[in-house]
Amino acid sequence: MANEYLLEMNHITKVFPGVKALDDMNFNLKPGEVHVLIGENGAGKSTLMKVLAGAHAPEGGELFIEGKKVTRFSPMEAQKYGIGIIYQEFNLVPYLSVAENIFIDHMPKKAGIYVDKKKMHEEANKLLGDMKMNVDTHALAGDIPVAQQQMVEVAKALTHDLKILIMDEPTAALSDREIENLFGIVRSLTEKGIGVIYISHRLQEIPIIGDRVTVLRDGKYIDTQDVKDITTEELVRLMVGREIKDLFNRERQAPGEVVLKVENLCSEKEGLHDINMELRRGEIVGLAGLVGAGRTELARALFHVDPYESGKIYLFGEEISKNLTPHQVIKRGLSLLPEDRKQQGLSLILSIAQNIVMASMERIQPFGWIRSKIEKRVVDRYIKDINIITPSREQLAGNLSGGNQQKVVLAKWLCTQADIIIFDEPTRGIDVGAKGEIYALMNELVKEGKAILMISSELPEIIGMSDRIYVMQNRRIVKELQSSEATQEVIISYAMEGAREEERQDG
Amino acid sequence: MSGERKSFLGLSASALPALSRLVVFIAIVILGYFIDSSFLSGRNISNNITNASILIVLGIGQTIAIITNGPDLSSGSIMTICAVVAAILMKNYNVNFIVAILSALFLGGALGALNGYMIAYVGIPSFISTYGLQWAVFGFAYVILRGYVLYDFGDTFRFIGNGVLFNFLQMPIVIMLILVVFGTLLLRKTNFGRKCYAVGSNRTCATMSGINSKTVILRAFILSGLMSAMAGILFIARMNAVQADIGAAYLLPVLATVYMGGTSASGGEGGILGTVVGALIITIVTNCMNLLAVPSEWRDAIIGVLIIVTVLLDSIVKKRIARRQTAV
Amino acid sequence: MDRVISVFKRIPIVLWFVLLLVIVFSFISEHYLTMRNLVILLQQGAALLVVASAATFVIISGGLDLSLGSILTLSGVTVALSLNAGVPIPIAILIGAATGFACGAINGVLISYSGLQPFIVTLGTQGVFYGFALVMTDKVGVPVSNESFIFLGSLVNKIIPMAFICCLVIYIFAIFVQDRTRLGRYLYAIGGNMEGARLSGINTRFWKWLVYAFAGFLAGLAAVVLVARLEVADPLVGMKWEFEAIAATILGGTSMNIGKGDVKGTIVGVALLTVIRSGLNVIRIPSLWQPAIIGAVIILAIVFQVGITAKEMKK
Questions:
Q1: What's the pLDDT tens digit per position in C32-86?
Q2: Total CB pairs under 8 A between chain A and C
Q3: In this complex, which of B3, B268, B328 lies closest to A20 when CB atoms are compared?
Q4: CB–CB contact A96 C188 (8 Å)
Q5: Average pLDDT of chain C?
Q6: Are strands C232-233 and A220-226 parallel, antiparallel or unpaired?
Q7: Which residues make Cβ contacts (< 8 Å) with residue A356, sequence separation at least 6?
Q8: What per-residue confidence (pLDDT) applies to B1?
Q9: Residue A252: pLDDT above 90?
Q10: What span, in angstroms and rounded, lies between the C-alpha atoms of B99 and B104?
Q11: pLDDT > 70: what percent of chain C?
């Protein structure tokens, strides 16, 4: 039965506890094409691909590969069908070598029993060489830089007999040269008739590499177009469902007194160098930079989770000792919503209520004895004010969607009556609707006179929300921008090494 | 309508595993009744609960430790050495029994603090640290007693272990109940208890929420040490004798009690009431084994199977719940 | 060569501990550093070396096995009973190894396929395996008199430590499995990134099961040598061995829960434990004090080892 399509996914539905990730989704792929899949965080792109790759079994719908219906879903089955996937979160084993990781599910064997290490390293070297990568195959996968880890994942996928290759945000950690390299590899694959599904947030890449593009939103299928037939602006509109400008809705105001002042902060552990910054009431200050620039490290140093050696921090005009514990810092009104909300921001097996009061116990019940009624009132108030969607306050935090989890973390910190709130990647992995809610909340907070420091890798978010932006590069703050002068190009030019004329001239 | 159903399941998500335990418990009680019709007599029940008391007291400390961080394998040894010290003070130095009890408690707390320090501040995994301590402490108990058996303590002291209040309440049960109430209130109704769950479920998150995780772990193990000391005192008050290995037989049953009671080995979940049920299950099973004259070599095996069955049931129930919740 | 250096970099502290103790003991008693004593030490530590290797495998994979001691006991009992029933030696050895494998397989099913926590499962199975051993022997040791079998564990001519040699061979086999077979490599995958490994197409459930089965198998082999050396299958021997095995593993540089470690370091941990035990006899510490001191020294050593590892991780 001749079939034009390499892959057909029809009416796919996937449900997780508390959230419908995919709702009647449709998708198809032609041989030899690069089909780009775009959508906001939480739109369902990764989930759809995980279903294809066998990591999840769908609750509804059908899947056909080269016309054959797929009945069993597991990573091994997917491999049999010739599906390869490079995940966004790396699946490398940290204490095994690069070569072993590349061949992890089919290590070459000698005499059928033991691993032929020599052959494995030879072939790994050859493969990496073909990809124009210079990686030590004996290095432990946990020790090599992130960009190289990404390429190791690519190599791993290429060792299989592929019909379909899925790439989830492959260029997030790569330099321009490496991206070109990657595109070259993609092209060589499509020339052989392999279909490539390419998930990316970087809209500028679509015209370069894509043949067709499909837009998803909120778990639903929106549209598919040929790349040459559609513009970036139209794509964005389809992704978001409305004009971008509406999303942020910042009501800017004149800032008040300085609540946080940092002078010459240096941290040996994190390599922070000579950080100077300040934060005032009523403003949102953005902290921009590339992955690894040191933003999270700065936040942790401010919050006294990590130590710093020299420099001064002033909270509300008062210098604070570098030996303060996070507990004391919290009492003074500082709070931090960490980047990794599941590992650091929440306790997934505790209830929403317990999570919300976790940082405020001394404040709510100073005698150590828990007063349930008062606690319930406090918790319910925050659930209502922040619009956390849950059947009960006793629901386990781990069962909530990403957006609701982030709201719980925010509730926790608001409960401490913090005046200064540091957000580290506040809307990562959150669907558009919840994003809007969080932006609105941030707006409310600064209107009340609080101050917000926002770390974000999403440039539109930083530009849309911030009053001022500090750009970090290589563990230093290299530039302070007012919101009026901030554009994506300007920020990136300061964030990337060697991007600026002056830097290059200094050599 | 569906909202209601969800919340019913949501609320009993934590209650259902407890239900499965109660089912096991009831099944065993029925079994006991079949074996011997006097099983459900007041005297037998009272005996069983009394016997379970020491296990429960040890279990309280262990539950707190496991919820916060990990198992305290030294509890049997701390129980022994505190009992030994108290006994020696009373017999050889004629010390007032109240002072002896306080000294034992102090020692238990101090050893618990040592555990807590090594686990929280030095960073040794809890069961290596407590296991090593256990070895050392048992060793010291041997050294102190030099193989002797001490017995025959004062009457007032012995009342703690053998006395009866109001003509029917055995003293050990009274003490056990007081401690159970204390422990349950501590875990459910105090900030400290909340912090134990927080630290045990996600230590990083707890620390970043301003909780001093190290202090919490230290205190949890001090409490465990105190409970072990209490158990030691109860033991010698009841048995009227002490030797250097009285705590050895309790290690496996205590751990079994706590884990069967629903406390999770990964921390952050569980409670003392579950431990009480676990202790009762084990005690009743032991009672049944006595009635059936089950030879001693089978006993550990039976308890082992019991542990596995309970935990397996638990896991199956949890999976069913999770599957139902998925059907949103 | 690089491998050797990196192993050395990881275990110097505990090794120095061992050497220090040896020097101290040899000063105290001139009999300590003799060939004769050394050989006895090797014999004593032999079985522990294999059991500790089994523990190391499980720990690298991120798990825990508290039943290793009881598997050791039960396997020893089956070997002894088989020999006494006239079963030829190679078959008896096979039976012992198979017993170990079967026990480990049971553990593996409960842990890997039913998803129960290793601590609790092996706590339970430990009682069961041990109970079986007690029942089969009526709580009494089973003596073995088969000359050729005993040879495997004996001290030939008072100078050749057969038990140690056999265990060393098994140990080398374990090293080979760790470094060169899929089972060994997958230990790190399961311990270091199990979900990632699953998504990469590895049947992690099967391999996790196999880890426990293989650990049981090793314990079974250790039992064979132990019974040969002691000339009896004593149901009381083997208790608590799992803890020593775990201690030796940690002393040897393996970390818990992160998929990092190396069974090649475990021999140092075993050496330390054996030296401590033996040395206390030599300096004539009354057996009353021995457990106390052993416990204290073990804790000290582990404090050092964990402290060093933690510092390395922070870098």
A1: 778 888 888 888 899 999 999 999 999 999 999 999 999 999 999 999 999 999 8
A2: 67
A3: B328
A4: yes
A5: 86
A6: unpaired
A7: A378, A379, A382, A383, A408, A411, A412, A415
A8: 31
A9: no
A10: 9
A11: 91
Closest-CA distance, C198 to chain A, in angstroms, reads 7
Report the run of H or E that residue A68 belongs to, with start and end: strand A68-69
- B297 in contact with chain C, both atoms CB, cutoff 8 A: yes
**pLDDT over threshold 60, residue A2:** no
Q: How far apart are CA A34 and CA A490, in angstroms?
A: 31
CA–CA gap between residue C20 and residue C39 (Å, rounded)? 19
8 Å CB contact between C262 and C6: no
Task: Check CB contact of B159 with chain C, cutoff 8 Å.
Answer: no
Q: B192 — contact with chain A (CB < 8 Å)? A: yes
pLDDT for the residue A17:
65
Strands A468-473 and A284-289, bridge-based pairing: parallel
Residue of higher predicted confidence among B257 and A146: B257
Per the CB < 8 Å rule, is C259 touching A104? Answer: no
The sign of the torsion formed by the CA atoms of A107, A108, A110, A115 equals: negative
Task: Report helix, strand or coil for C253.
Answer: coil
Return the H-helix or E-strand segment holding A260. strand A258-267
Q: Concatenated DSSP letters for A457-491?
A: S-HHHHHHH-SEEEEEETTEEEEEEEGGG--HHHH
What is the full DSSP assignment across C114-131?
S---HHHHHHHHHHHHHH
Name the residue type at position B109: G
Look at residue A74 and tell me whether its pLDDT is greater than 80.
yes
Asked if A360 and A350 touch (Cβ cutoff 8 Å), the reply is no
pLDDT, one tens digit per residue, over C262-275 is 999 899 889 988 88
Strand-pair partners of C193: none
pLDDT beyond 60 at A213: yes
pLDDT class of B2 with cuts at 50, 70, 90: very low
CB contact under 8 A, C193 and A91: yes
**Residue A226: how many other CB atoms lie within 10 Å:** 10
Q: Does residue C8 surpass a pLDDT of 60?
A: no
pLDDT at A19 over 90: no
Instruction: Say whether C185 and A100 touch across the interface (CB within 8 A).
Output: yes
Tallying the residues shown for chain B, one arrives at 328
Identify which of A284, A278, A280 has the alpha carbon closest to the alpha carbon of residue A256: A280
Q: Is some CB atom of chain B closer than 8 A to the CB atom of C186?
A: no
Which residues, other chains included, contact A489 with Cβ-Cβ below 8 Å and sequence gap of 6+?
A: none
Those residues whose C-beta lies under 8 Å from the C-beta of residue A134, and which sit 6 or more positions away, are: A128
A196, A165 in Cβ contact below 8 A?
A: yes
Contact of C295 with chain B, judged by CB distance below 8 Å, is answered with: yes
Query: What's CA B291's distance to the chain center, in Å?
Result: 25
Tell me whether residues B206 and A358 touch, CB distance under 8 A.
yes
Predicted TM-score (pTM) of this structure:
0.83
Average confidence (pLDDT) over C228-249: 85
Name every chain C residue with its beta carbon within 8 A of the beta carbon of A113: 181
**C-beta atoms of C188 and A79 within 8 A:** no
Q: How far is CA A370 from CA A363, A374, A409, A455, B274, in A?
A: 11, 9, 21, 35, 21
Answer whether C199 sits within 8 Å of A107, measured CB to CB.
no
Report the residue from C110, C128, C293 with minimal CB separation from B139. Answer: C293
Query: How many other CB atoms are found less than 10 A from the CB of residue A358?
Result: 25
Tens digits of per-residue pLDDT, C155-166? 877 788 889 999
